[in-house]
Amino acid sequence: QGLRGIAIISVLLFHLLPDLFINGYLGVDVFFVLSGYLISSILSKHEKLSIDHFLDFYKRRFERIIPLYATLLLMCLISSLFLFSSFDVENTRISFVWSLILARNLQQIHDSRDYWKQSSNSKPLLLHLWSLGVEMQYYLIAPFLSFALIFVKSRTHRVLALIVLISISFISYFSSDSTTQFNSPQCRAWQFLLGSMVAE
């Protein structure tokens, strides 16, 4: 929890004082690794994963995230009606739809928008939700990955399997453009998988 707190604070400081905390954005990467570690730790408690375990995993994640997430989305949408021009309101509405299905990161890829090349004045209101999109999309496959690894009895072989998956993610990363590298769950998967490997 301490590391998660440090990661979150570093990202906040990066956005508030980017010239002073120039590497604060790395807190997102740390958070992804920690999430991979925690997911694997939670799922590895079960010697046999069943449909009930899968459903319980998703239920707990959604109960923890979705209520606050939905509240934030609604507040942002309502605020935009009073604070933005009609053009910006329309952009926010489109981003709201993507965010509603937890795919704000995929909108960035769809629109070919480089996170780093957007000026501070033009960054969409819901841009920060890209990271939650990546995380929730990884959550969709994490239980199935853990289920597959159960059949690998040797710890060494499980680690080797994770190394192979990390390598595949690296290949995807280096063969993609910068926008896809930043926002794509398959390009970011190596970070979650690194956390899973530590959990082993």
UniProtKB/TrEMBL annotation:
Spans traversing the lipid bilayer: 20-44, 65-87, 136-152, 159-176
Listed name of the protein: Acyltransferase 3 domain-containing protein
Acyltransferase domain residues: 2-197
One GO CC term, this protein: membrane
Upper classification of the organism: Eukaryota, Metazoa, Ecdysozoa, Nematoda, Chromadorea
Keywords for the protein's UniProt record, in alphabetical order: Membrane, Transmembrane, Transmembrane helix
GO terms (BP aspect): polysaccharide biosynthetic process
Pfam families: Acyl_transf_3
Gene Ontology MF annotations: acyltransferase activity, transferring groups other than amino-acyl groups
Organism, scientific name: Pristionchus fissidentatus
